[in-house]
Design brief:
By secondary structure, this protein is an all-beta fold. It has one helix and 23 strands. A ten-stranded mixed beta sheet has the order 1-4-7-10-13-16-19-21-22-23, with no helix packed on it. Strands 3-6-9-12-15-18 form a six-stranded parallel beta sheet, with no helix packed on it. The longest helix is centred in the first third of the chain and has 4 residues. Bound molecules: coenzyme A (COA). The site of coenzyme A has 12 residues, from strand 21.
């Protein structure tokens, strides 16, 4: 057996980059052109599409699905039950959740969350589970999202409320 064939590294598309300090489960799937940066963890059965950039200290929990061309900044937490579409931006320190009534004892009760194509989430936002973030929407920095966000809508605050509709560049088209 050649050195390459006996390596304990799982086979991945050639142009995938995994930083030596990152930890990616053998059965996680990484698409071509994707980069996983320092100290990031990608758990079992997670799926990350093509040309995704996953920053430092990101936690991608088991079964999370992330589409193509996504940009995920440092310190983001993505938990089981989350599905992220294509071309989604997730700012630094954004936290998703997956259990509405967590307790230290007993099993997790996972409520799924969906983020649709082209959505952008500002730094330090918290997304309470069970919501859908519509295509092309934008979440202001530090917002706490507790309800669905319609497509192409800008929301801010705690709880996050719509303040405008926006185009695909994030420019306002109308006050909400
Ligand atoms: C939400 C955001 C897109 C709005 O930008 P904007 O369209 O230029 O809006 P304005 O700055 O004119 O603000 C409009 C109003 O919303 C308020 N506002 C803006 N951002 C807010 C936020 N994150 N949370 C709460 N209120 C906010 C402003 O105070 C202002 O209120 P007022 O009308 O009472 O004065 C922007 O503030 C934001 O949070 N961007 C995300 C930045 C980020 O996290 N980037 C990550 C990569 S570094």
């Amino acid at each position: 057996m050649s050195a390459a064939a006996s390596s304990d590294q799982p086979s991945r598309p050639k142009n995938v980059f995994v930083h030596p300090t990152a930890e990616v489960a053998d059965d996680a799937s990484l698409g071509a052109g994707t980069a996983i940066w320092n100290w990031t963890k990608v758990r079992e059965n997670a799926v990350i599409g093509r040309n995704a950039n996953i920053g430092q200290h990101v936690y991608v929990d088991a079964n999370v699905r992330i589409g193509d061309d996504c940009k995920i900044q440092n310190g983001v937490n993505l938990f089981d039950g989350l599905t992220v579409g294509d071309r989604v931006f997730i700012g630094p320190a954004v936290t998703f959740t997956n259990d509405l009534h967590p307790r230290a004892t007993g099993d997790w009760e996972i409520t799924p969350t969906n983020v649709h194509d082209g959505a952008s989430i500002g730094a330090n936002a918290t997304i309470v589970c069970g919501v859908t973030l519509g295509a092309g929407c934008m979440i202001g920095a530090g917002s706490v999202v507790t309800k669905d966000v319609p497509p192409n809508t800008l929301v801010v605050g705690n709880p996050a409320r719509p303040i405008a509709t926006i185009d695909e560049r994030g420019n306002r088209t109308e006050a909400a």
